[in-house]
Write a structure and sequence with these properties.
Layout: E1 11-12, E2 20-21, E3 24-27, H1 30-36, E4 42-44, H2 48-60, E5 66-68, H3 75-88, E6 92-93, E7 99-102, E8 106-109, E9 118-125, H4 129-140, E10 145-150, H5 161-170, E11 176-182, H6 187-196, E12 204-209, H7 233-242, E13 246-247, H8 251-259
Parallel strand pairs: 1-3, 4-5, 5-6, 9-10, 9-11, 11-12, 12-13
Antiparallel strand pairs: 2-3, 7-8, 7-10
Helix pairs in contact: 2-3, 4-8, 6-7
Length: 263
């Protein structure tokens, strides 16, 4: 993140106050860090059993957004975090997210920055690996990205597709959007309804991962579990197409759709 140009002004680890990592001072608490540094956002790399406390400390300190990279946080902890963040007006990105990146400016996450270039396509994704792959396709066709957001692959996350689509709708740098979904849950179906109702009016191309998944079996992300007939790749692709979204059969189709008449 430092190499990309992100202004990391402090690290916080209890018991490590007074240390320095890569030239960045470390403090025991965020409150202590705020006495010495000016800060806006937080990114959390904390083992799952302790991640709730770390994220709540950031929320209570008024940092926004709070990006939670950690995977495997207990669902109950995430529900509590989301509820308390909502009351505080704080945006939670994740958990189990690769983070977010504004190409050419800064990144708050763990994505490989070399595949991103400044451009006009907004990307919002539940998948990490496909996030990078489709970003690389978008870069390769010459479009580049305006802002890229990883929602996270857990059953409960802070931001969802609709939150990010609302933001992209009003972002002057974003001309079109790549939406990357996966099996499990109903986030893509709700996004399709939002688009159908006119909540988002710019061109959208999508890819849904997990068509070969076995119902009831976890495939990668904890959120990627099919229950009964809901949450399947086929159902998600159908509702998105009915909403006017171009849905690719392969990841590379997304960039091709956006580069063509759709974009």
């Amino acid at each position: 993140m430092l190499e990309y140009g992100t202004k990391i002004v402090a690290g916080v680890t209890p018991g490590r106050g007074g240390d320095e990592v890569c030239g960045v001072p470390v403090y025991d608490t965020i409150a202590e860090a705020k006495e010495h540094r000016t800060m806006d956002a937080s990114i959390v790399f904390v083992p799952a059993p302790y991640a709730l406390d770390a994220a709540l400390e950031a929320v209570e300190a008024g940092l926004d957004p709070v990006v939670v990279i950690t995977e495997g946080i207990p669902v109950r902890d995430t529900i509590e975090l989301a509820a308390r963040a909502r009351r505080a007006g704080t945006t939670i990105v994740g958990p189990n997210t690769p983070g977010l990146i504004k190409p050419g400016e800064s990144k708050l996450g763990i994505m490989p920055a070399q595949v991103f270039r400044e451009g006009s396509v907004g990307i919002v994704s539940r998948s990490g690996t496909l996030f990078y792959e489709i970003a690389a396709h978008v870069t390769r066709v010459g479009l580049g990205q305006s802002m890229c957001v990883g929602l996270g692959g857990d059953p409960v996350v802070g931001l969802d597709f609709i939150d990010v689509l609302r933001w992209f709708e009003h972002d002057e740098e974003t001309d079109s959007v790549a939406l990357i979904g996966e099996i499990g849950g109903d986030a893509e179906e709700r996004a399709a309804e939002f688009i159908s109702e006119g909540g988002f009016t710019k061109p959208v191309a999508a890819y849904i991962a997990g068509r070969s998944a076995v119902p009831g079996k976890r495939m990668g992300h904890a959120g990627a579990i099919i229950q009964g007939s809901t949450g399947t790749a086929e159902s998600k692709m159908k509702v998105l197409r009915n909403a006017g979204v171009a849905v690719g059969e392969l990841p590379g189709d997304v960039a091709r759709f956006l580069k063509g008449p759709l974009g």
